[in-house]
Amino acid sequence: MADYDIHIIGGGLAGSEAAWQLAEAGVRVRLSEMRGGGETTPAHHTDGLAELVCSNSFRSDDAESNAVGLLHAEMRSLGSLIMSAADRHKVPAGSALAVDRDGFSAEVTARLAAHPNIEIVRERVDALPGEGLAIVATGPLTAARLADSIGAATGADALAFFDAIAPIVHRESIDMDICWMASRWDKGDTKDYINCPMTKEQYLAFRQGLLDGDKTEYKEWEKDTPYFEGCMPIEVAAERGEDTLRFGPMKPVGLDDPKTGRWPHAVVRLRPDNALGTLLPSSRQG
């Protein structure tokens, strides 16, 4: 007989949380993660569990007026490992919850590894388990063979979507004679975000540069993959209309430029990506 009660495949956010909750309830867990066993993905950089490969933000942490923030509160009340680690490694992000991604992943990994009911196995799983209980939490970075196995079992012909990775900017490259620090509507610590304003002319030139710039050609298998509307590549948003960006990730609402006393035409917002505050990813909300 197997020396575990349930097999979890995938050590991302979902797999890590599922393993923790089950283990805390007395269930023996085998957690399979291919990274660290000679395998990796095109997006991951480490073998840490719950590694954040896109944004370091968990979005709004406002439990009173935001559904995402309410979910955070519910998870905390249920002893969530992900929320506990996020709270311990949070970085300034206004009313949002953002984390130092390295510290966050390291804590999740260490606490799972130390749990007596969890066995972490660095292995690639190529097919759905034939027997026993299992949770498949491999997400859009599922290895090809396992994706084929899932597709065969579900009848699905597409198990992925496009996502956008936020660019990282070095803090020392920001001209603070032009930019200023503030949160939208002055929520939270008003120095959580660096705001880089654009005039209408600058914004239009920026958008035109996105439209005219070289773009990667899609491979045959990916050209019809749908975009995730909540995290769209910036060049795709630019193609949808002149004002799409400035009513989306570059919206200036609630941000008074202290040099003019007015909202800029558009704004690029940057917040800390690490505890030192030296790395700043472009923010899509907050």
Q: Can you describe this structure?
A:
By secondary structure, the protein is of the alpha/beta class. A four-stranded parallel beta sheet has the order 6-2-1-7, covered by helices on one side. It has a three-stranded antiparallel beta sheet with strand order 3-5-4. Helix 1 links the parallel strand 1 and strand 2. The chain is globular and about 65 Å long.
Ends apart, CA distance between termini: 50 Å
Envelope shape: globular
Give the second-level CATH assignment, the architecture of the largest domain. 3-Layer(bba) Sandwich
Strand content: 15-25%
Query: What's the Cα radius of gyration?
Result: 21 Å
Number of helices: 7
- Give the overall average pLDDT: 87
Order of helices and strands: EHEEHHEEHEEHEEEHHEE
Strand order of the largest sheet: 6-2-1-7
Helix coverage percent: 25-40%
pLDDT < 50 stretches: none
Under CATH, the topology of the largest domain is which?
FAD/NAD(P)-binding domain
CATH 4th-level superfamily of the largest domain: FAD/NAD(P)-binding domain
Extended strand count: 12
Report the top-level CATH class of the largest domain: Alpha Beta
What structural class do you assign from the helix and strand content?
Answer: alpha/beta
